[in-house]
Amino acid sequence: METFLGFWENLSKPIIGLSPMDGVTDFACRYITARYGKPHVMFTEFVTVEGLLHAPERILKDFEYNEIERPIVAQIYGSNPDDFYKATQIVCGLGFDGIDINMGCPAKTVVSRNAGAKLITTPELALEIIRATRSAVQDWTSSQASRKPTPYSVKTRIGFDSVVIEKWVEVLLEEKPAAISIHGRTLKQMYKGSADWEAITRAAQIIKKTKTLVLGNGDVENLSQAKLLIEQTGVDGVLIGRSAIGNPWVFLDSCPAPNRDQRIQMALEHARYYTDKRGDRFIRNLGKHLASYLKHFPDAALLRTKALQAKNFEELKSTLLTI
Ligand SMILES: Cc1cc2nc3c(=O)[nH]c(=O)nc-3n(C[C@H](O)[C@H](O)[C@H](O)COP(=O)(O)O)c2cc1C
User: Fold this and answer.
1) How far does the centroid of ligand 1 lie from the alpha carbon of residue 32, in Å?
2) In angstroms, what is the span from residue 275 Cα to ligand 1's centroid?
3) Which residues contact 323 (CB under 8 A, 6 or more apart)?
4) Total tally of structural domains belonging to the chain
5) Which pLDDT belongs to residue 14?
6) Which residue, 251, 276, 310, sits at the end of a domain?
């Protein structure tokens, strides 16, 4: 079995990507990031494999994307290999460039169902899940001559309650994923402390002996920091998460800090795109994004409060343009 890299092979290096974030990297966030930040790769929010099979209309909304987002990777999670098989075929059919398996989420609701970071403690199940994903891609591809295979990757943490990343990546490499993204914290740490880039370096040394790519992740705040970490640790690239919220500029080389007017215009374009597709009544879902776009201003608290009171796009626009 050869490692199949698919689109990953054509990315220029170092790879700088938008990390998957549930409740954040939805269709509108990715559209704005693709249009103004142009990271090399972006991930959807994670979507449960069971959900894809049993509540497809709702879940498929999470998988809505625009062509400008390519290469776009769909992230899925769960614990049942059969569900992964079926869900992977749906993802292939939707035309995603890649499939990523979440093996890092620390949320209780996910871990209690043996998914996310819990899979670090059940390596046999983790491998079965990757195998099911690979077979689904193979079967989907071979059933029609025009179909192209979709590469699969894994996003994980450095351990469950202690750092086991070296042993853990050896396990994952048995199934030759195209890429392994590593958030430098254990599940137990959640988001506390700082990301352990030394552990990521040790993992990178192992992964670099294979064709699989390795992406580091955790606490990267800007592009110069990303480049320094890539040089120091030997990873092929990094994923930026929290620092990209309300900040598509984070992916731009030598971009001067955006001014107040540029931030407001970006917040409005984001909100316009979102409400055009979902309707005004869901404008409240933009809270996290609006707060981030506006957080740099001296009157941020007031702005945020007023923006979050808007009931529709027009109200938001007049609020932001008159303050
Ligand atoms: C609000 C939020 C939601 C997240 N959702 C996901 C997710 O759906 N899938 C995933 O693999 N990681 C998820 N993560 C983890 C991030 O992708 C990333 O690994 C983590 O935030 C560390 O990177 P950062 O310091 O650049 O934010 C989430 C993180 C945050 C803050």
Assistant:
1) 18
2) 24
3) 299, 302, 303, 306
4) 2
5) 97
6) 251
